[in-house]
Amino acid sequence: MLSARQTLIREELEAGTGAAIGMTVDGSKSRTGLRIWFADLEERHGPVAELRPYGLKGYVVTLGFGAFAGEVVRRIAGAGSEDVRLARALIASIDNSVEVEVHGQEMADWKITTGDFRMTAIIRNLPRDPEIALTEVSRDTIVPMMAAMAELIGYDIIEEDGHGEPEYEGAELVTTVRRRERNPRNRLLCIRLHGEVCACCGLDPRETYGVAGSIIEVHHLEPLSLLKEPRPYDPARDLAPLCPNCHRAVHSRKPEPWSLEELRELMADPTGKAGVL
C-alpha cells in the first residue's frame, strides 16, 4: 500500500517543505514502511523520516538522522533562534490527537545537538480509505516534521535577488531573512494557526472555488524591510492569511503597506469621505 502511493506522499511533502524529497520502500521489519529524506542530502547524510503502519488503522512516523549526518547535525545545532522558534512552532502545530514525543526531551524546548535525536509521532483512528489516510498523515504529520528540519537546515525558495545570480553554498541556497515572506513553511504554519479565511474580507476560497480554492496567501504584518532593529520572529503574531485581492491591495501602498485595519476601513468606505485615513 505504501509503495503504491509514493507519488502522493512525495507531492505532499515537497509542497509543504519547499525541498525535493527522496524515498524508498523498507521491508526490513515485519511491516513494510517508507524511508523519506531530503533528496540533495541523500539518505545517510541528513534527517530521515520512517513511516510504518501502526495497529489496525494507524501509522507511526519516526524521525532521526542518517549514519553520516554529522555535518548537517552541526549545521542544525547552530541554527538561529528565529529558525528554532519556527521549527518548534511547526511541530507544535501537529494536531493534539497525534502522540508526538521527542525522546529524552520536553516538547516545549526540544533541540537537536547530536545525531541520536529521535522524534516519534503515532497517528491513530485514520479513515478507512487508504489514500485519504495517507494524505492526512503526510500533510498533517510528516510535512510539519520534515518542514521543521528544513527550517533548521536552512532550505529556502531559490529566487533572484536583483543583484545577479543567486548565491550558493554547496548545493544549498544561502538563506537571507528577506526571503522569509516567501518561505513555503510560513504558508503551512500560517494556515495551521489562522485557517484559510482571509483576515481582511473574510473570503473562504475553498467554499467559493472548491478544489481550486487553495489560493490563500501569507502576509507578513510587519514588513521585514521596515524593521528598525531585529526582533524575535513570532509566527502567531507576524503572519496573516489574505486572499490574493486583499494581499495585493495591502501592498498597493509603498514603501509601507496598508495595515489590515486600514484596509478594512477602506473597504467599508472606498470613497474615503469618512475621513478616517
TrEMBL record:
It comes from the Bacteria. InterPro entries: HNH, HNH_nuc. The keyword Ribosomal protein does not apply. Residues 198-253 form the HNH domain. Keywords: Endonuclease, Hydrolase, Nuclease. GO terms for molecular function: endonuclease activity. The keyword Nuclease applies. Coiled coil: none annotated. This is HNH endonuclease. The lineage of its organism: Bacteria, Pseudomonadati, Pseudomonadota, Alphaproteobacteria, Rhodobacterales.
